[in-house]
């Protein structure tokens, strides 16, 4: 598995955001939707529900797929809100550092 798939995906999301409409792009469809940020947020909500149902149904394969959908749409929503993904990584790292005090 690629160690930094999240960084790679974030880079693509940023490239799509800055790109042109020439190439069909799902990320751009979400980022430049007429509903504005409500569209990517709507997708986060939908994917969260689908993920919960997959887990509750004990469907491991579906759960993995829905988790990936959820994380992807979460990242697109962060871009829509102009919040860099690095901030999430930093927050998680800080929490790890804090937790380490009690390990
Ligand atoms: N990881 C993903 C990814 N995961 C899911 N999806 C798309 O997310 C959509 C969500 O599925 P749904 O069943 O909810 O779709 P839908 O109901 O038709 O969608 P809506 O009308 O509700 O928006 C599908 O169209 C999937 O193709 C993704 N689309 C893109 N990526 C990544 O983003 C990159 C850039 O994509 P483009 O912007 O399309 O070039 C790709 O190379 C991938 O790495």
TrEMBL record:
One of its GO terms (molecular function) is ATP binding. GO terms for biological process: L-histidine biosynthetic process. It is found in: Cytoplasm. Its EC number is 3.6.1.31. SUPFAM superfamilies: all-alpha NTP pyrophosphatases. Its main location: cytoplasm. It catalyses: 1-(5-phospho-beta-D-ribosyl)-ATP + H2O = 1-(5-phospho-beta-D-ribosyl)-5'-AMP + diphosphate + H(+). Pathway: Amino-acid biosynthesis; L-histidine biosynthesis; L-histidine from 5-phospho-alpha-D-ribose 1-diphosphate: step 2/9. GO terms for cellular component: cytoplasm. Keywords: Amino-acid biosynthesis, ATP-binding, Cytoplasm, Histidine biosynthesis, Hydrolase, Nucleotide-binding. It is an enzyme of class 3 (hydrolase). CDD domains: NTP-PPase_HisIE_like (cd11534). Belongs to the PRA-PH family. HAMAP family: HisE. NCBIfam families: histidine_hisI. This is Phosphoribosyl-ATP pyrophosphatase.
